[in-house]
Specification:
Helix content is 36%, strand content 21%. It is α/β, with parallel strands linked by helices.
Length: 303
């Protein structure tokens, strides 16, 4: 199967999943008409999404899986979801990082995508509790050769979670002694009431330590995380400086959270001529950037 076909399948499955979540269930014949594809294609897509554990197939269609607040999908299960959105988010988030910064990256598939975008930023110090994120930088350094300095990577200790994060008292103690300019943190769920949340109690405590040790907090999470609530909250929306998300976040949600977030960056939004643009705030003025940095191409910024 070609790369283009893979991308089309990914986009189609994202649309199917959004439809299932929004409506509480769909029928195969509805999807064939909506997507203009064959019955067999829709059924293959539903099979793939069911294997990922994000929906349940029923006779003639599919329904969403109602997950317990303690359910924690593994890294592999999450890595195949919202791939295009994660790439857009990673591209926009990477533009927030200045050479020579001390940054932290939490565990998660979106921060994993972001790590790939940061390997060429000079003189970074990277603190992470993610085995996967650390491997991205170590692999890049091996490929670059001994003559290249690369990033300085600090991997915390701790107990490994299903999403390959290191958590617990060892990780917490290490993180609390550090101070970083910028934290990029992935979330299981984000909502007005619960703020940022995770189904893993130990991970929640480690995430609190990360938030407390950061000068600025940037959430990197696609639109499907909105409205999801895990067992334990670890930060309020008021503690977040910036949320970098994708174009799937509905306009009414953007309005709802505008009073609580300092900044919302919508990655992947383009102008009418197809070129990436950076929008101003509601008053029409340029919303600006802290530290004089510009936002990434193809991202709109809402103050």
């Amino acid at each position: 199967m070609s790369e283009n076909q893979n991308l089309l399948a990914e986009q189609r499955r994202a649309l199917i999943l959004d439809e299932v979540r929004r409506r509480g269930g769909v029928r195969v014949n509805e999807l064939t008409r909506k997507l203009s594809v064959s019955d067999m294609t829709v059924r293959r897509d539903l099979d793939a999404l069911a294997r990922q554990g994000v929906l349940e197939k029923v006779h003639g269609g599919a329904v969403p899986i109602v997950e317990a607040s303690t359910h924690e999908p593994g890294f592999e299960a999450k890595s195949g979801l919202e791939l295009s959105a994660k790439e857009d988010i990673a591209r926009a988030a990477a533009a927030l990082v200045a050479p020579g910064s001390a940054i932290a990256l939490s565990g998660g598939t979106t921060t994993y995508s972001l790590a790939h975008r940061l390997v060429d930023v000079p003189d970074l110090t990277v603190v992470t509790n993610s085995v996967r994120v650390a491997d991205v930088f170590h692999t890049a350094q091996r490929l670059a050769g001994k003559g290249q300095s690369g990033a300085t990577v600090v991997l915390t200790g701790g107990v490994r979670t299903p999403s390959d994060s290191l958590v617990g008292p060892v990780a917490d103690q290490a993180i609390r002694t550090l101070h970083f300019d910028l934290l990029f943190i992935g979330v299981h769920g984000i909502s007005v009431e619960a703020g940022l949340s995770t189904p893993n109690l130990a991970e929640a405590e480690t995430n609190r330590s990360l938030v407390q040790s950061a000068r600025r907090v940037v959430v990197v999470a696609d639109h499907t995380k909105w409205g999801t609530v895990g067992l334990s909250s670890f930060a309020s929306l008021e503690q977040v400086d910036t949320w970098v998300t994708d174009t799937g976040l509905p306009a009414e949600v953007r309005t709802e959270i505008s009073e609580r977030l300092n900044r919302l960056v919508v990655a992947g939004e383009v102008s009418g001529d197809g070129e990436g643009e950076r929008s101003g705030d509601a008053s029409g003025q340029d919303s600006g950037r802290e530290s004089g940095q510009e936002s990434g191409g193809g991202a709109s910024v809402e103050a």
